[in-house]
Amino acid sequence: MTDVEQKTALVTGAGRGIGRGICETLAKKGYRILAADVDLDAATTTAAVLGEGHRALELNVSDSASVDRAFEEAVARFGHIDVVVNNAGINRDAMAHKMTDEQWQIVLDVDLSGVFYVSRAAARHMRERKSGRLVNISSASWEGNVGQANYAAAKAGVLGLTFTLARELARAGVTVNAICPGFIDTEMTRGIPADIHQAQLDKIPMGRTGAPSDVGAAVAFFASDDASYITGQVLEVGGGYRI
């Protein structure tokens, strides 16, 4: 018997990249996974990769009604949700003076409002149970990055939300922490032009990209009993990117 036996983790943006890596890591630790994604086919693929006992869930984090329905379905299916990982995110990069209203708003809707909607639903459930773990995926870009005014603003907002929720939920036995990944090897980063890719690598003291499993390991720590007295914290997973 492990300390995570029968525990359920819901991961948003689970269809690919970092989200799938988080799911794979938590599944290996013994969690039952609800792989949630706006792309149900991608979420289904993740659940299939994980194996028997794991489920896919269609979830549009930018739609509060969709979030509430998904949580109702998840609780009905598994009875409880012990860990929620807010990983879903998008980017629509542009220099600020060229950024459209649509590019600004859609990133805020998914990357910040989506985290709030999911966290609110999770908080309602976890407060009743007087236990739970919320892990929010922010980004090293929260401090600002050229061409990412929308993304940086959203990811900085995620940290403010994390600190607030940590204060609000502490007495209910719920911890809330954040992870800031750096340059992680995903389909998105592999599509970056070679010169920009190398420029990013040059900023990393360890000289390499991270793997989704590196982020997954950090999530697994915050979700574990070993982190039961840790809340309102931010962990950088970036190979020294911000040194």
UniProtKB/TrEMBL annotation:
Keyword line: NADP, Oxidoreductase
| EC number(s) given by UniProt | 1.1.1.100
Q: Out of the domains of life, which is the source? A: Bacteria
GO BP, sorted A to Z: monocarboxylic acid metabolic process
Q: Where is the Ketoreductase domain?
A: 7-182
Pfam families from the xrefs? adh_short_C2
Q: A GO molecular function for this record?
A: 3-oxoacyl-[acyl-carrier-protein] reductase (NADPH) activity
Q: What class of enzyme is it?
A: oxidoreductase
Give the family this protein belongs to, as stated in its UniProt record.
Belongs to the short-chain dehydrogenases/reductases (SDR) family.
Q: Which PANTHER family match?
A: 3-OXOACYL-(ACYL-CARRIER-PROTEIN) REDUCTASE (PTHR42879), 3-OXOACYL-[ACYL-CARRIER-PROTEIN] REDUCTASE FABG (PTHR42879:SF2)
* NCBIfam families, alphabetized: PRK05653.1-3, PRK07231.1, PRK12826.1-2
What is the protein name for this chain? 3-oxoacyl-ACP reductase FabG
Source organism of this protein record? Microbacterium aurantiacum
Q: Which gene encodes it?
A: fabG
